């Protein structure tokens, strides 16, 4: 789901980067007002977890791969704003040091995976919790929706490139495939494989964190899941 440099126009990268500026500013204010300094390391745990699971690529039909993100899990454990910061840090490190996702495309990748995915997934999770659905099932369904929301946004951003940016002869200047190709390619992979992987990982980790004892290193990470006040 990471968009490399060269797939999006400079204008698209600039717009998506500009969109993420107020998002990250708001996330910083929210985290500063709700997290104690001693709790900040839990965000580092979240970043490390997301970094790790993004490294495991799952083969999908068509000869390519997809990966989980962990966005909804972080949103549940840290709050969606905390998840936004943790995931943005992960994406920044990946783009700068591992070439996974473009540097210029960081704004778009952050919007998709660090903002849209955690908020969509957390919204579904919160709704299901109000309906008295169990936390494990709620988290799994939320994770499935969250990663697919991010995949759809990625597909739209890519598919709009040949429509908006092309030469006089119609030749695409950046990503060459339109919405009719980008959306099915992204959504089939995530609806059938990556989304299920995300759901299973999230559900299993939530199940474990709900039972983490006070001596467990992940105890602080899981206080939201156990319904405790901060």
Give a verbal description of the structure.
67% of the residues lie in helices and 3% in strands. The chain is mostly helical and 230 residues long. It has a single domain (10-226), classed as Arp2/3 complex 21 kDa subunit ARPC3. A two-stranded antiparallel ribbon has the order 1-2. Helix 3 (71-78) packs across helix 4 and helix 3 (71-78) packs across helix 6. The longest helix has 32 residues, at 179-210. InterPro entries: CbiM/NikMN (IPR002751). It is a multi-pass membrane protein. It is found in: Cell membrane.
Overall 3D form: globular
In angstroms, what separates the terminal alpha carbons? Answer: 34 Å
Q: Based on the structure given, which CATH architecture is correct?
A: Orthogonal Bundle
User: Which class do the helix and strand fractions yield?
Assistant: mainly alpha
Q: How many domains would you count in the coordinates?
A: 1
Largest sheet: 2 strands, antiparallel
Helix proportion range: 55-70%
- Compressed to H and E, one letter per element, the order equals HHEEHHHHHH
How much of the residues is beta strand, in percent?
Answer: under 5%
CATH fold naming: Arp2/3 complex 21 kDa subunit ARPC3
Q: Roughly how many Å is the radius of gyration? A: 18 Å
């Amino acid at each position: 789901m990471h968009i490399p440099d060269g797939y999006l126009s400079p204008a698209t990268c600039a717009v998506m980067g500009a969109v993420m500026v107020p998002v990250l500013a708001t996330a910083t204010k929210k985290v500063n007002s709700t997290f104690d300094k001693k709790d900040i390391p839990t965000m580092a745990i979240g970043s490390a977890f997301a970094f790790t699971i993004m490294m495991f690529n799952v083969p999908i039909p068509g000869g390519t791969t997809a990966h989980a993100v962990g966005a909804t899990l972080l949103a549940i454990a840290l709050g969606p704003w905390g998840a936004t910061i943790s995931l943005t840090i992960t994406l920044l490190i990946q783009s700068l040091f591992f070439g996974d996702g473009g540097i210029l495309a960081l704004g778009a990748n952050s919007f998709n995976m660090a903002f849209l995915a955690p908020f969509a997934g957390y919204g579904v999770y919160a709704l299901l919790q109000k309906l008295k659905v169990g936390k494990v099932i709620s988290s799994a369904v939320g994770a499935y929706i969250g990663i697919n929301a991010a995949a759809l946004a990625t597909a739209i951003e890519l598919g709009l490139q040949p429509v908006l940016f092309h030469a006089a002869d119609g030749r695409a200047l950046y990503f060459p495939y339109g919405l009719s190709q980008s959306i099915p390619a992204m959504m089939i992979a995530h609806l059938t494989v990556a989304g299920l992987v995300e759901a299973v990982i999230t559900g299993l980790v939530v199940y474990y964190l709900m039972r983490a004892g006070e001596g467990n290193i992940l105890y602080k990470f899981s206080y939201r899941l156990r319904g405790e006040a901060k």
